[in-house]
Design a protein that fits this description.
The protein is built from no helices and 18 strands. It is an all-beta fold.
């Protein structure tokens, strides 16, 4: 585990602080081959008696940003077979990044399927995941972009970092909120003694940067603060 004490992100001359604690990132799997949740046209037959657990990487993202919806599908307390189709749907202004629409179909790997959700406006989006005749729902509330006055010299400024801890394995989405962010943007985790780990910037605008945390080598039970 790592506990972040400071908030410093290196964006040009900008620095932030984050913690490595418990994080997990998962890439969406490819669409099902030759069939949807009904299993027509080949592919993995839809499981009977499946259970679905839904979670969101960020249940309260800013409008215009993204959150990853994870569906954990199990059958008889075991992961659903690889390639099981999961149909995601979103209400209102919710859209999925891979289709640009309010529906998408993903397939499972080790019982898990993911979809990236976004909304251009603030409000609550209900996400539904369907496997065969079983469905589960989760709500995500997109927040309005904060209105902050520009700094006198137009310099970048940070107002929040979330989450401020994560797993040392990396791959966690961290959201940096502030103002006057301008590209090109690079974010580094400074572990001290000249050790830098660069994070992957996944999206950015004038008020928000999202990155995937880098991996850090730690022994069992160790924590590490990182200046960013």
């Amino acid at each position: 585990m790592k506990v972040l004490r400071q908030r410093k992100y290196l964006f040009a001359l900008l620095a932030l602080l984050v913690v490595f604690g418990g994080c997990r990132g998962e890439d969406p799997t490819a669409p099902p081959v030759g069939g949807g949740p009904g299993g027509s046209g080949g592919g993995t037959p839809p499981p009977v008696g499946a259970t679905i657990t839904l979670s969101a990487s960020n249940p309260n993202p800013l409008a215009g940003s993204t959150t990853i919806i994870t569906a954990n599908v199990r059958v008889d307390n075991n992961p659903a077979p690889n390639g099981t189709a999961v149909e995601f749907g979103a209400s209102g202004t919710g859209r999925f990044s891979d289709t640009g629409a309010n529906t998408t179909i993903r397939t499972t790997t080790n019982g898990v399927a993911t979809a990236t959700l976004t909304s251009t406006t603030a409000g609550t989006v209900t996400v539904t995941a369907v496997v065969n005749n079983v469905q589960q729902q989760i709500t995500v509330t997109f927040q309005s972009q904060p209105v902050t006055p520009p700094s006198p010299d137009g310099a970048p400024a940070i107002t929040a970092v979330a989450p401020n801890q994560g797993r040392p394995e990396g791959g966690e989405i961290v959201t940096i909120t502030g103002r006057n962010f301008r590209g090109p943007i690079r974010v580094f985790f400074d572990l001290g003694s000249g050790v830098l780990r660069e994070a992957l910037v996944t999206s950015s605008n004038a008020n928000q940067i999202q990155v995937l945390t880098p991996a850090v080598d730690l022994g069992v039970g160790q924590t590490q603060a990182a200046t960013i």
